[in-house]
Amino acid sequence: MTKSLGKAFAENFLGNSATWYKQAIVAFLVINPVVFAINPFVAGWLLILEFIFTLAMALKCYPLQPGGLLALEAIAIGMAPPGAVYQETIANFEVILLLMFMVAGIYFMRDLLLFTFTKILLSVKSKALLSFLFSITAAFLSAFLDALTVTAVLISVAIGFFAVYHRVASGKHFNDDHDHSDDQQVSRNNRTELEQFRSFLRSLIMHGAVGTALGGVCTLVGEPQNLLIAERLGWNFGEFFLRMAPVTIPVLFCGLATCVLLEKMKWFGYGATLSNTVAGVLTEYNDAQEAKRDHRMTASLIAQAIIALVLILSLAFHIASVGLVGLMVIVLLTAFTGITEEHRIGHAFEEALPFTALLVVFFTIVAVIHEQHLFTPVITYVLSMDREVQPLMFFIANGVLSMISDNVFVATVYIEEVSEAFKMGIIDREQFEVLAIAINTGTNLPSVATPNGQAAFLFLLTSALAPLIRLSYLTMMWMALPYTLVLSSVGMIAISVAF
């Protein structure tokens, strides 16, 4: 009885995860207090690596549970106080609101998005051109909206495409109930086509995700840290854009060129095309949707289009916090498209809330970084260097740390330190501005290397789409590698030449 009960506890721990994975998490939990008692600084970096491990294994086990256990232990043994976690969460409350409401708002706009992108997908035959359009559209939207919002749009569209073909490949009609996460129902004759379609969607979604970074670095609203840096320097929207342009514009063009080159050369997992079979299914679906569209459905699409315009204008002119704008979108879309049942509204929040919980766990890790001063030696060392090499070294240091940690946190720590150095007279105003540019570009560009570098990438990795198209942590890193090399290299050259 005791043996059976013990086995049951072991089986329940982290559910269906592999035994070796469960053992690894237990080992982490045993080792951390011992290392912390010996050297808190080393224990802090060990915790970061362990948390990255849970992210890398996201398809084996959702990171909330193992990452949450590591975070709880870190608080319990004194690596950071609970109050520090609360302060980190409050400081990022706008991001939490965005995830809760804006992502849900995009869910109610999925009919319009699927309609629009289906037209584009079926009319553009060149994969290279299609990838370029996805990337540049994501870049443009991210410059005025938020990268997480744009990523939510990409996820919604990709899931819509995948669900349509998966249903047909399983021998069902468009309107039949179907679980598109279960490949057991897919006929053997269609499995090769399905894998090619997965590869096709993986490449499109990665081009789009990198596009959010290309556009997000350009303006003060593109990423949360951009606004913070602009506030410290007193830059408005136009001045921020112009100050960053010597670095961001060359990077944008080179990033878009990389997109086309990767598709043409079929390197790093890119280059998969849309097969005639899948294109035929999507065309048939589009025709079926057109045939059954009545006045009420047309009115719903028109309402969604109008509210989408209201969304863009609201965010472009910053009438309110992004999350509150998302709540407004939910109210408007549900009111004018006939969605009044509580259970239908509830489905919209299923995608974002697990990630919201994971993000708060991540803030615990950030609190540990702050409390244990894990980045302080790097900042002190770079500020001690000669004035001429400081911008380049800040770009490199910010880039490397942003690959490991969250780029928003890295930028926040660095701009605070540099701002303090300016107030103390260690650097002058001109150097302060140059270092601010290096911090902004350094945290936004090299951070595409890993999913934990940017919130939008982490959101994509832990979304419902990732397991559908087999987009794992290592796959994301591999597909992002050429972009990382190009964006980082061009950024370093631009920093060196311009400043």
Walk me through what this model shows.
This protein has helices at residues 2-12, 19-38, 40-56, 64-76, 82-91, 93-107, 110-123, 127-144, 147-169, 188-216, 224-233, 237-265, 276-292, 295-316, 322-336, 342-347, 352-371, 376-383, 390-404, 407-423, 429-444, 455-461, 465-468, 473-498. With 499 residues, the chain is an all-alpha fold. Among the domains are: 1-79, no CATH class; 93-222 and 272-352, no CATH class. Helix 6 (93-107) packs parallel to helix 9 (147-169) and helix 6 (93-107) runs parallel beside helix 15. It is globular, with a radius of gyration of 23 Å.
What secondary-structure arrangement, pairings included, does this model have?
Blueprint: H1 2-12, H2 19-38, H3 40-56, H4 64-76, H5 82-91, H6 93-107, H7 110-123, H8 127-144, H9 147-169, H10 188-216, H11 224-233, H12 237-265, H13 276-292, H14 295-316, H15 322-336, H16 342-347, H17 352-371, H18 376-383, H19 390-404, H20 407-423, H21 429-444, H22 455-461, H23 465-468, H24 473-498
Task: Tell me the radius of gyration.
Answer: 23 Å
What's the shape?
A: globular
List the total number of helices. 24
**Total beta-strand segments:** 0
Q: Can you describe this structure in just a few lines?
A:
The chain has helices spanning 2-12, 19-38, 40-56, 64-76, 82-91, 93-107, 110-123, 127-144, 147-169, 188-216, 224-233, 237-265, 276-292, 295-316, 322-336, 342-347, 352-371, 376-383, 390-404, 407-423, 429-444, 455-461, 465-468, 473-498. With 499 residues, it is an all-alpha fold.
